[in-house]
Amino acid sequence: MDVVRIRGGRRLAGTVEIGGAKNACLPIFSACLLTAEPVTIRNVPDLSDVRFMADILERLGATVERLDPHTWRITAAQVATRAPYDLVRKMRASVCLMGPMVARMKRAEVSLPGGCVIGPRPIDLHLKGLSKLNCGVEIEAGYVKLDGSRMRGGEVFLGGRHGSTVTGTANILMAAVLTPGRTRIDSAACEPEVVDLCRLLISMGAKIEGVGSHAIHIEGVEALHGADYSVLHDRIEAGTYLLAGAITHSDITVKGAQAEHMAAFLDKLSEAGLVFEIVDAATIRVRGDQSDLRPVDVITLPHPGFPTDLQAQTCALLALIPGLSIVTERVYPNRFMHVPELGRMGADISIEGPSAVIKGGRPLSGAPVMASDLRASAALILAGLAASGETWVQRIYHLDRGYEKFDEKLASLGADVARLSDTEMPKDLSVEA
């Protein structure tokens, strides 16, 4: 198993290129099951989650070809009707298979996904939405059994306790495009990744109105055709590199950072006093002269609010800004497992209900830490960039789920970051359980 060693204290400089959005790719790969014709997908990041999804589609009968490191072609001439647990357990996003499988094959059996380290992520809204399309839904022996033989368009409300469901919206969208009649999705998620899925479906022949709003209308069609589509850039990856520049007081340019998808995040950085320049529609430059950063309060919300996927990385920055900051998590309330690890590095953070109370301004020092999830991994590496001494981040397999060559990209900017085998880590530093 690999670890990442960071020797902190260096300023960064240069340009970093942002890849395709993982959270768009996974439902887009699922959507390829909606047609028997080839679908070519470009700007796909080289991530373990993407490879897992490709394996799942292949196991379901699709022909999956990797044309180059960032281009895939998927042809689902035949599609199985059962997605077993040994496939689905690898990745929760595979729950997005339900919609396209039942829409295309008129029946499906998909294993219920397992738990998640950042908190409960129930699929009740997915099942409620499918039932509103007159799809038969049964849960038996750990599987969701779907009967789509009598499906028809309907009114679907997808609002939940923590806002709209992104994967639920994707599932109902994909089910509705091949369902006779007109479907209206109210309280639909409007994340850019959902918009990207809509644009792919439209390019395949789907009839969708209200893209990007909380009210989406779909007129079902008999069949979809193939397409050639390029995935949008990853706003979370872009935000992480902007924070890398901020936390090291560095001057870096992030290409592929689309400001229109990052308004709440950029507004909060501006409130904190961060100096940055929106160079063009897909380029943002962080300035190196960060001398007067201020504490801020952050509340994560579904888009267009502050993204939960940038919460952990933002905590790392706020730990270094003198004063009191409060970060409140409204999407995944348990998403603070990075806090004790930041504490090992000297951060003064306490958890009060759904909020992290950050008494910023204390210097960080390198320490061995443990990554609990994807975004926590990035947060701990960012903290290591600003810390004195060496930081060793373990369980970085989480990192490979959502960041392509994160260590290499940081190194290209001048960071002293190395991916090493865990055998190269001093044994007395290991914090493995």
UniProtKB/TrEMBL annotation:
Annotated catalytic residues: C116
Function: Cell wall formation. Adds enolpyruvyl to UDP-N-acetylglucosamine.
Catalytic function, reaction form: phosphoenolpyruvate + UDP-N-acetyl-alpha-D-glucosamine = UDP-N-acetyl-3-O-(1-carboxyvinyl)-alpha-D-glucosamine + phosphate
HAMAP family hit by this protein: MurA
Pathway, per record: Cell wall biogenesis; peptidoglycan biosynthesis
Family membership: Belongs to the EPSP synthase family. MurA subfamily.
Superkingdom of the source species: Bacteria
Residues annotated to bind phosphoenolpyruvate: K22, N23
InterPro entries from the UniProt entry: Enolpyruvate_Tfrase_dom (IPR001986), Enolpyruvate_Tfrase_sf (IPR036968), MurA_subfamily (IPR050068), RNA3'P_cycl/enolpyr_Trfase_a/b (IPR013792), UDP_GlcNAc_COvinyl_MurA (IPR005750)
Binding site for UDP-N-acetyl-alpha-D-glucosamine: R92, R121, P122, I123, D124, L125, D309, V331
Domain named Enolpyruvate transferase: residues: 7-410
UniProt organism field: Ruficoccus amylovorans
Protein name, UniProt field: UDP-N-acetylglucosamine 1-carboxyvinyltransferase
EC number: 2.5.1.7
Gene Ontology BP annotations: cell division; cell wall organization; peptidoglycan biosynthetic process; regulation of cell shape; UDP-N-acetylgalactosamine biosynthetic process
Major localization listed first in the record, in broad terms: cytoplasm
